[in-house]
Each structure stands twice: as C-alpha cells, then as structure tokens.
Design brief:
With about 190 residues, the chain is an alpha+beta fold. Helices cover about 25% and strands about 30% of the residues. It has one domain: Gcn5-related N-acetyltransferase (GNAT) (Aminopeptidase). The protein has 4 helices and 7 strands, in the order βααβββαβαββ. The N and C termini lie far apart (about 55 Å).
C-alpha cells in the first residue's frame, strides 16, 4: 500500500526559518553551516537558498522540513564554450521527515530552475555526495542525476582527517552529449 505524498511547498529562505534550518543542517552534516553561512547564501545574487515546508494551518507560519543551498558557477568545455551551472552545496532534510519525498521535491525545484532561469538557462547542476550516503545517492539517481566521477579524500587540516571521505560527483544536465560507440575490433 502506497502512502500519499505530502505536497511540499518550495519557497525562498526567510529569516524566521533560520533556527529551524540550522537545526536541520546540524542533523545532516558533521561540519554544519553557521548563521553567517546561511545569511551569505541569502544575500548573494549568485546563489539560491530554498526551503521545503508542508502546508501549515493559517494560525502559524509553515516550518521548514528541508532546504538546499546552490551557487551559480560557470565552467568551460574543451572547445572553450561556456557552461553555466548550479553547484548544489547543501541539501538536508529534517530526520523526522525523511523518506517522504522532501529531497526529491527540492531536487525537482533546482532542476526546474535550470530550465527557466533568466537571463539564460543553466545547462547543468552538480552535487558531490559522500560515499557512505547511499540514501542521497539513490534519491539523486531517481531524480535523473548521473554519477560522473569521484574525488579522492583530501585532508587539508589534521582535524579533518577523521571525516575525510570519497565524494561522488553527480550531475543533472538538460541534454547529455551523445556518445557514438564504435566497434574497434574490426
């Protein structure tokens, strides 16, 4: 029996969301964001800070149950063509609301922005997911993202050595380059 999914509302981060989003972030990341980090995302014109909430009674403001932070970047391919894209810096969901479609709704919002952003659409979104975060990897794959590589653990500070992990690079592209397969045996 399938349960009915809650119609999550994806909206911009507001100051009343701050305490709730910091709590969600602390539950999802070992190196959690600070108030200054979130304010920087909110104020920068080249970034997005969006929250997911469920429809709340009119008597109170809706509580955030998840959020994502993304930054607009530009990359260039081998031919020198520009590829504007979003880098998904953070995505976290409240532990009590996991496996209810919140992360999928947040990813869908980012993908929708790829297609509609002005002055021109972005071509792709990129996220790096920890090697041991299988639920996030599966959610990204289910949302149409592809794993395109991995990074080796990097420990710039001795204190970070305990949490150094391989990160998998996931991408969502509006159009994937076509690949021509040839038979090299003949």
């Amino acid at each position: 029996m399938r349960t009915k999914r809650t119609p999550w509302i994806i909206r911009p981060f507001t100051t009343p969301d701050l305490a709730n989003v910091l709590e969600i972030d602390a539950a999802g990341y070992q190196m959690h964001a600070t108030q200054a980090d979130l304010e920087a995302y909110r104020l920068r014109p080249d970034s997005l800070l969006m929250v997911a909430s469920h429809p709340a009674p009119r008597r109170r403001a809706p509580l955030a149950v998840g959020f994502y932070a993304a930054t607009y970047l530009e990359d260039f391919d081998a031919a020198g063509r520009e590829w504007p894209y979003y880098h998904l810096d953070r995505l976290a969901v409240d532990p009590d609301n996991r496996r209810r479609g919140v992360a999928a709704a947040l990813l869908a919002d980012l993908v929708a922005r790829l297609k509609t952003d002005e002055p021109r659409p972005r071509q792709k979104a990129v996220a790096y997911i920890d090697e041991d975060n299988l639920p996030a990897q599966l959610c990204a794959r289910a949302a149409g993202w592809r794993c395109t590589g991995a990074t080796e653990p990097c420990t710039p500070r001795p204190a970070a050595a305990a949490i150094a992990k391989t990160l998998y690079r996931f991408e969502y592209r509006l159009s994937w380059p076509s690949v021509k397969i040839t038979n090299r045996l003949t």
